[in-house]
Amino acid sequence: MSLPPRQAQVLSLIRSSIEDKGYPPSLRELAAGLKVSGTRAIEKHVQALERKGFLRRRGGARSIELLGRPSGGRRVPILGRVAAGVPILAEEHREGELTLDPSLARWDDCYLLRVKGDSMTGAAILDGDLVLVRPQKDARDGEIVVAMLDGEATVKRLKRESGRAWLWPENPSFSRMELKDDESSGILGKVAGVFRF
After folding, report:
1. Are 17 and 29 in contact (CB under 8 A)?
2. Are residues 135 and 107 in the same domain?
């Protein structure tokens, strides 16, 4: 069963707490882990997960119990930021992870990058979104890719014209950039999905 991203995050935090500490988190701890101020939204996500058969609640503050039903979720690392504007260095540090349905994250080596900038707004990729990247060295004309350009990473649409590869923005305020075939440039992967919170 596919879970909405926020419910997947809640389930991942519950699972991590049980694995790391031996007991489930409280609603306040879940809210803190998701950086939200109150517990009301967390309560609704927990209720939805209970209805879907992923957990059961008993009485008490730490009343969450994971059920034997396999979530089938895959933990995908969030590795850093990628520009949707002028290229910036993709800082390869792990910000965390997001549990995704395997039908979305079908590749063992896929990862998530956080978008910075607004050059891809026409493709509904906004500042702060997470893009799911399928690592690959090439892509078809018209696909949205994460590419290294002069040693810095950016997300753009790949277009080929007259034997040259271009990285096109989806915002008329930005200019296209040529993707040269050298050591400091190249395609890192294809954008396979976008997540917004």
Report:
1. yes
2. yes
Q: Are residues 53 and 140 in the same domain?
A: no
Q: Of 72, 2, 57, 1, nearest to 26 (Cα)? A: 57
| Residue ranges making up the domain that contains 59 | 5-66
Asked if 103 and 129 sit in the same domain, the reply is yes
* Last-in-domain residue among 44, 66, 88: 66
Q: Is 119 tagged catalytic?
A: yes
Q: Which residue among the candidates 119, 159, 180, 185 is catalytic per the annotation?
A: 119
pLDDT (average), residues 1-11: 83
User: Do 78 and 172 sit in the same domain of this protein?
Assistant: yes
Strands (DSSP E) found in the chain:
55-57, 64-66, 74-83, 96-100, 111-116, 130-135, 144-149, 152-161, 164-168, 177-179, 186-195
- Mean residue pLDDT of the chain comes to 86
Q: Which residue has the tokens 């895959």?
A: 74
Q: 119-141: per-residue pLDDT in tens?
A: 999 999 999 999 999 999 999 99
Same domain, 145 and 59: no
Catalytic residue among 71, 156, 185, 190: 156
Is 190 tagged catalytic?
no
DSSP 88: B
